[in-house]
Every structure is written in C-alpha cells, then in structure tokens.
Amino acid sequence: MEEKSPAQLPFLFPKDLDFECTSCGRCCRDRWEIRVDAPSAEKLLSHDWSASLPELAGAVPFKKRLPLAAGVVESGADELSYTIERRSCGSCVFLTQNNLCTIHSKLGFLEKPQVCQQFPFLFSESKEGVTVGLSHYCPGVRRREGASAPPLLAQEAELRRLHAHALRVERAPERILIDDGLPVLWEDYAAFEAFLRELLIADPRSVPASLGSLAVASAMLADFLRVRAAGKDEPPAGAVRDFVAGWKRMGPARIVEIARRQRRAPRTVRILLRQFLSLVDVGGSDAGTSLGRALRGFWAFVKEALGVGSAHCLPLDARVSIRAVRGVELPWESPELSEPLRRYADHAIFRRRLLPILGARVGLALLVLHVAAARYVARAQAVLAGRERATPDDVATGIQLVEKHYATHSRLGEAFARGPARGLFRKIAARPRYALAILER
Ligand code: SF4
To answer: C or N terminus of the chain, fewer CB within 10 Å?
Structure first.
C-alpha cells in the first residue's frame, strides 16, 4: 500500500479534551526558549517596537540560540537560530502586563513565533494518522464531559495548518520496541496500545491497580514475545495481536486482578523508588555544578529515606517538610482526586510522547513515575497551603507541573532514552511490583 504524506493522514483527536486560551500568560512567563527562525526574527526586527515596548529602548529583543547539546537532534533546529529575550522576572519581553502578546496585538496571530502559535498542541505521526495531543501544563486545556464528537474537531483546519508548520513532530519509527530486543510492527504496537487504554478503565474502583496493570501487561507481553521470538532477531508479525486477543477473551479485568494481587516490593525498595522523585527534582535544577547537584540529590535522598528535614520541591520552587508531605491525605479511593490521574495517564498513552520512543516497558515505567510525581507535587502544594488533605486543585497543579518539569517540556525523556537511566528504568519496569509500590500511597 502506498505511504500517505502527512498532509493526507487523518487527524486523531482526544475524545473529550478541548483547548481555549485563558490569556493566563503562563506559557510566556516560563524560562524556556522561545525559538524563532531567522527570517521571522528579521521580519519582527524590521518593525518599530519603540511605541509599544518603550522598555526595549532600542535593544534587540532576540538573541542567538545556544547550540543544542551534543547528540540532541531536532528537525528544523538549524533554522531556529534565535530566541526571544526575557525580562529579569522570566517573562517574554513581548508580554504585556495584561498577559497579552504584543506581536499578536500589533501584527496578528500568524506573526507570532511558531512555538507560541502551536502551544499547547503536540503532534505525533504514525501510519494511523496524526495524533493531536495536548500539554496538560496549559490551564486552557479542558475536559468536555459527554461531548458527542471530539471537541477539537471544530479546530481541524487550524490544527492542520499548525501541524504543517510545526517545529517538532514525533514520528513513530518503522518498528516499535516493546522491550530491549523486542521490536514489533506498528500494527502490533497499536493493538497493544489500545489494550493498555482498555486496561486503564477496566476497574473503575481502583486507579493504582489499573495503572499497575499496565506494567503487568507489558511484563507479560515481553515474556510472551521472547518465547515467540524463539531466539530470532524479532518476534513474528502478529504475535502482539495474538497476545491481546487471548487476554481479551479472558477479560482485561483479569490482568488488573493480577496487578492487585502482586506482592509489593520490600519497604526499602519502595523508599528508593518513591524518593527517586527528589533526586529528579535536584537533578533537574540548573543551579550549581553537576557534582554539587548530585551531592544535593544524594542528601535529599538520605533525608527522604529517613523521613526527616525538608527537601526542595523543584516544580513548586519551595522547600517542604518531608514529614508533612507524607502526612497529607490523598486517598486513591476518592474519585475526584484519582480520576484526573487516570485520565492524564490515558491521554499520555494516546499522545504517544514516550512509548514508541523509549519502548513500551520503559515508557510505561516513566508514565507511572509521572503519576506518582503528580501526587507528590499535589501533597507538597497542600502542605504549602496549610492543608492536611489534598484537593482536586492540588492534583491539577501536580499534573500541570509534572508536565512542565518531567513529562512534556523537559529533556528528561531524552535522558531516559539511552544510558544508565534507561537501564535503571528497564529494571524497574521488569518488575511490576515496583511500579505498584510507588503508586501505593
Ligand atoms: S512572543 Fe507572544 S505568545 Fe510568544 S511567549 Fe512572547 S508574549 Fe507569549
């Protein structure tokens, strides 16, 4: 069959997510790079900003981008040679006090940098089509309950335009790794992905067991494929679909039941995994040398393991008492606190940022960690607000900040794609009881 060009591919929308800009200005205030290609920068520079941005006083609002780190490849990165200057508070120099974009108000939406036009949409291409994902960092991303059609369908023409000019589009490779040494065809992977999403909703009573069942399913699938590969380079085509069909006959709820009955990892392992979050927090900071950050990470880990002192929570940029964070109630049994996390995990699988790139087992282990991290941040947020029980707003904050710092807008995914971190996560993913342990509380 002839391969379709991206422009011919169907667009795949989340069934109930919508986006409407709330003009909160959050995406213009963070310190990430706002990349601009040279022709756009030159066009913007030819405009006289002195009346609308007197603070610039003739200064150039762009600076040359630093080169990408060795080994990091991005499509179109060569042409993106400029970034927009920021004020000392971190906001873009074009952001007004009313949270409006000066470029937008003076020259129109289409003259804004491409990254600004695209946020919060994330595109991912596969043989099936172009998946339209959304960054949950943006508060304008909303759930529309009971929508009869995907709400974003109404924006399809604009989304196609954004996709055609997108600076970053994930493309699914020809073969998708389920685990190291287990590449499978896209059709096989797609069947497994659909099954994962079924598993997530198979047991409405237990979100952690549902999430844990993803790790159980990927571990069982890897074992199954190794047997079917029988020492060859890859498993036979269709093997994943056989696995899925077999479990569908038995009922996905059986896998959730297996997850529920898994023996939890020993306490020391739980501490190690749970406190990995604090290491990521410190490691994700730009402050200080890498040795200094590593030492701070180790010290944070020791305090977490002992349950004493305080730790810097990077996403909230605040120190929080370790004991107080642990003491915050955030019961899985409470649907208003747990369902947003289940739905977040579902959307993360749908938008395919991790799974095809890192391999399903490592991607799922990271996804579980992201959910655990969102709970950690929600608890820390409750502590800062003086509450003993987390609220739905705390959970929403946890998800938003995990998107920013761990999941979508950080380079952590790239760090996990290779090297020792990948090996560590593969080991964790190989043991579903570890994944269940970090979700336990
Ligand atoms: S250019 Fe406009 S939309 Fe982009 S970050 Fe600056 S103020 Fe925000």
So the answer is: N
The helix or strand, by DSSP H or E, that contains position 391, with its residue range, turns out to be none
Q: How do residues 410-432 score in pLDDT, each as one tens digit?
A: 666 666 666 666 777 677 666 77
Is the pTM higher than 0.90? The answer reads no
Handedness of CA 422, 424, 427, 428 (dihedral sign): negative
Residue owning the nearest CA to atom 2 of ligand 1 = 101
Distance 368 CA to ligand 1 centre (A): 33
Distances (CA, A) of 329 to 124, 244, 383, 389: 37, 37, 10, 4
Lowest mean pLDDT among 20-29, 161-170, 229-238, 331-340: 161-170
Closest by CA to 277, choosing from 323, 328, 315, 332, is 315
Q: Is 390 helix (H, G, I), strand (E, B) or coil?
A: coil
d(CA 139, CA 136): 7
The closest-lying atom of ligand 1 relative to the alpha carbon of residue 95 is 7
pLDDT value at 379 more than 60: yes
Q: Which of 82, 84, 121 to mutate to test the pocket of ligand 1 (most atoms within 8 A of CB)?
A: 84
Domain boundaries, the chain: 6-171, 173-441
Whole-number Å distance, alpha carbon 26 to ligand 1 midpoint, is 10
Give the nearest ligand 1 atom to 94 CA: 7
65-118 confidence digits (pLDDT tens)? 655 444 444 444 455 578 888 888 889 999 998 899 999 999 999 999 988 999
Distance 19 CA to ligand 1 centre (A): 18
Confidence at 42, pLDDT banded by 50, 70, 90? confident
How far is 213 from 200, CA to CA, in rounded Å? 8
Q: Which residues line ligand 1 (CB under 6 A)?
A: 28, 34, 84, 92, 94-95, 101, 103-104, 112-113, 116
| Pairing mode, strands 318-321 and 310-313 | antiparallel
